[in-house]
């Protein structure tokens, strides 16, 4: 008996994965690589990390699969256990990657923005008119 099913190659499947999903998987793999590096630096295996963090070895295996969607609290705990930075960035990098905070100094009919490209505490201000 013949079927009319079309064979789909792995290449076709991969090409049809949305870019957003590809980026997310890549970021998860980066996190896993940082954790594995931290484990290597401390000379820890999966069982050692599990014991250190009061988790089961299967939990650590799940974390290191590249599939796991970490909660921020879990990442903070892993950072503490391994003495590594997964989420934290240096202040130099942070200033380049993140828009500086906006400080609202007053509310009046004028709109004024000082230089927000270079954040200096208490020097940047924005005035907004909340009255139409």
Explain this structure:
The chain has 132 residues and is mainly alpha-helical. The chain has two domains: 16-88, 434 Repressor (Amino-terminal Domain) (Orthogonal Bundle), CATH 1.10.260.40; 92-128, no CATH class. It contains six helices and three strands. It has a three-stranded mixed beta sheet with strand order 1-3-2, with no helix packed on it. 5% of the residues are buried. The model is unreliable at 90-104 and 108-130 (pLDDT under 50).
CATH topology (fold) name of the largest domain: 434 Repressor (Amino-terminal Domain)
Largest sheet, if any?
3 strands, mixed
Low-pLDDT regions? 90-104, 108-130
In DSSP terms (H or I, runs of 4 or more residues), the helix count works out at 6
Q: Give the termini distance in whole angstroms.
A: 74 Å
What's the Cα radius of gyration? 24 Å
Strand % is 5-15%
Q: Kindly report the average pLDDT value.
A: 75
Considering DSSP H and I runs of 4 or more, what fraction of the residues is helical? Answer: 40-55%
CATH homologous superfamily classification of the largest domain = lambda repressor-like DNA-binding domains
The outline comes out as elongated
CATH architecture of the largest domain: Orthogonal Bundle
CATH class of the largest domain: Mainly Alpha
The total domain count is: 2
């Amino acid at each position: 008996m013949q079927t009319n099913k079309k064979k789909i190659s792995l290449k076709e499947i991969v090409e049809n994965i949305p870019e957003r999903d590809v980026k997310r998987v890549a970021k998860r793999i980066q996190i896993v690589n940082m954790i594995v590096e931290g484990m290597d630096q401390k000379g820890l295996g999966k069982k050692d990390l599990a014991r250190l963090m009061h988790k089961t070895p299967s939990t650590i295996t799940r974390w290191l699969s590249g599939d796991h969607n970490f909660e921020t609290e879990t990442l903070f705990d892993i950072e503490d256990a391994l003495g590594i930075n997964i989420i934290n960035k240096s202040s130099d990098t942070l200033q380049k990657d993140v828009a500086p905070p906006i400080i609202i100094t007053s509310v009046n009919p004028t709109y004024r923005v000082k230089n927000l490209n270079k954040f200096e505490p208490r020097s940047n201000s924005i005035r907004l008119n909340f009255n139409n």
